[in-house]
Amino acid sequence: MPLILFHTPKSRSLRPLWLLEEMGLDFELKTMTYDAEYFASDAYREINPMGKVPALYDGDHLVLESTVILQYILAKHGPSPLSVEAEESDFAFYLTWLHMAESGLSHYLAVYLGQMTGHDRYAVSEGFESYVKYQAEKAFEMLDNHLIGRSFIASGRFTAADISVGYSLFLASELCRLPLPNRVQAYFERLQDRPAWKKTVSIK
After folding, report:
1. Among 87, 94, 124, 160, which residue has the fewest nearby CB atoms (within 10 Å)?
2. Which distant-in-sequence residues (6+ apart) come within 8 Å of 85 by Cβ?
């Protein structure tokens, strides 16, 4: 039975979709237009109790959260050079950026984007908006420093950590319209050149 991924264009489900394309795995894609009312419905919450995307089904097993799905796919459907193993010297960098791209960057960017687009549930004070931008800028600075002398996040090769970070940069640059540091911008452009990324973002 193939993997089933529930996906909405431009959302965090780009992360697992990109990984699946890079790995060449057999999967079924359920693409949906973003619809807050449907995602809150009982029908969709039977698919994902959190009412969000992505949701991945592997047989009877439901996996949630985009970076967790990356880690799950690699663990269950690898081995793959897109994973960095515990015995590799850059394992800590890999695991840090695999998850911090979400918790330390996309999380704040999503709030910022929601406020920009006028969604009531994201309405926050101007002070909090400044805080969100400050957190994003700290993450950009950390990433910029990490990329000194590196083409990718870890182990000198493209990995799932780059997929995780790459989506965050897509969210920052393409959706939030935030400027990226020069080194980070060059890195993001390298990621965008990958055929699997181009295929992933072309799916509507």
Report:
1. 87
2. 91
**177 to 82, 138, 166: CA distances (angstroms):** 29, 17, 15
Query: Which residue type, as a one-letter code, is found at position 172?
Result: A
pTM of the model: 0.94
How many residues does the structure list for the chain?
A: 204
Beta carbons within 8 Å of 91's beta carbon, 6+ residues apart: 84, 85, 154
Structural domains counted in the chain: 2
Task: For residue 130, name the pLDDT band (cuts at 50, 70, 90).
Answer: confident
8-state DSSP, 95: H
Distance CA 57, CA 49 (A): 13
Q: How many other C-beta atoms can be found within 10 angstroms of the C-beta atom of residue 37?
A: 7
Do the domain assignments include residue 7?
A: yes
CA angle at 114 for the pair 68 and 71, rounded to the nearest 5°: 5
Residue pair 60/36 in contact by the 8 Å Cβ criterion? no
Distances in Å between the Cα of 97 and the Cα atoms of 19, 100, 113, 146 are 15, 5, 22, 10
Q: What angle do CA 156, 157, 163 make, to 5 degrees?
A: 125
Helix (H, G, I), strand (E, B) or coil at 135: helix
Instruction: Kindly report the CATH number assigned to the domain that includes residue 37.
Output: 3.40.30.10
Task: Give 88-126 pLDDT, tens digit per residue.
Answer: 999 999 999 999 999 999 998 988 887 777 665 656 666
